[in-house]
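In this section we walk through a basic example: taking a raw amino acid sequence and producing a predicted 3D structure, encoded as discrete structure tokens. The instruction is simple. Fold the sequence below.
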Amino acid sequence: MRPMCANYAPTRPDRLRAVFGVSPEREDYVEDGYPGHVAPIIIGAGPARHAELAVFGLIPPWSRDGKNYRQCYNARSESVADKPSFRHAWKTRQWCVVPADAFYEPNYETGKAVRWRIEPCGDEPLAIAGIWERWRAPTGQWATSFSMLTINADAHPLMSRFHAPGDEKRSVVLLEPSRIDEWLGADLEQAPQMLRAFDPDIARCVAAPRPARAAKPKA
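The resulting token sequence is shown next.
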């Protein structure tokens, strides 16, 4: 099975402040996010809400080298409570929101993989449901990391258009703005009920192939 969302556009600092009421400790994070990159997430409900910069790809507490982010950037909602990499974050209710101006998925309708951009129809950024974790490196330094939660999307009008033929269709979970605090403060019974398909009318998609690499000059 091919990977799910491994590329997205983190929301910029001015929009984080205006829409979510949070500010990251640094504003020099990437504009095009991949596993291993550092980008803002939102943690804490109500007055405790704040932004932290975190590694895209969850690093479990037991990791020896911190390289788990390469496989742990998406967490399947059906198994997140049981998977060794994710179960500590899930059982301790370490929910987060991943603010995104867009995310990208491969579309095969032309017969080959073409990157498409999924973005909001309105002015507000997308709020992707996720889980976060803290990991202490052998050097003693602490790192925060996160994973986006995913659900089955075989019947979704928009998200079923992505991924290779024959693969299960998956989707991130987009939270309505009014339900962000509810997610960040959810208990273990409420959280699974909030992981459901988003209204396809809130997002649109467009082909966004990667720019061709410039040819290297001949020696």
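Looking at the output, two observations stand out. The chain is about 10% helix and 30% strand. The chain has one domain: 8-104+123-154+173-200. In the next section we compare this with other chains.
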